[in-house]
Amino acid sequence: MRDHSRADDAPHPDVWTGRATNRVQWLLALVGAACMALGIELAVDSAWTSGVAALVMSVVGCIAAGLLVLFGTLAFVHVDLRCDKDSVEVRCGHIGLPRRRIPLSHVAGADFTALVTPRQWGGWGYRWRPEKGTAVVVRRGEGIVLRLWDGHTFTITVDNAESAVRAIRARLRANIPGSTH
């Protein structure tokens, strides 16, 4: 008789989806918008007597910094993880960029990690560290670590990471030739 009490034996949906969100990033986006507003204000209502070059540099600097902060933070307000029978796909932000699709044939295993912090990876966002691998970190908390066949790792912060790991492991077992589901 088979023991059905194990969580790994539970059926998994055809497509597993998950998400992690960081509301603090919205505050940083507001800082970017404020920099842009300052640049526009300088351009429109300028009483600078020190010359046009200083004014242009200030306006361009404020607008450029604002755009970089605004779009850089909005890209990592949230991360979406999608796992189907063929691949794991990670999309960041509202427009889904940056995006990475990893075929399951490239995945050697998946592990749950209880705590991923921006400090471990050098900040929020899409990160790479030679000694650790690659990560998408949008908030502090649980995540998954994909071990790839080429020796690299890919870490993703996602809510309900244990469920994601179970779903990925089930798909990896299903892709082994001669295995029974």
Tell me what you see in this structure.
- With 181 residues, the chain is of the alpha+beta class.
- It contains four helices and nine strands.
- It has helices spanning 24-44, 52-74, 118-121, 161-174; strands spanning 16-21, 78-83, 87-92, 99-103, 107-116, 125-129, 133-137, 141-148, 153-157.
- The strands form two sheets. The protein has a five-stranded mixed sheet with strand order 5-8-9-7-6. Strands 1-2-3-4 form a four-stranded antiparallel sheet, covered by helices on one side.
- A hairpin with a 4-residue loop joins strand 8 (141-148) and strand 9.
- Helix 1 (24-44) runs antiparallel to helix 2.
- It is elongated and about 75 Å long.
- The model is unreliable at 1-9 (pLDDT under 50).
What is the straight-line distance between the termini?
Answer: 16 Å
Mean pLDDT figure? 84
SS summary, helix count: 4
Q: Encode the helix/strand succession as letters.
A: EHHEEEEHEEEEH
- Strand arrangement within the widest β-sheet reads 5-8-9-7-6
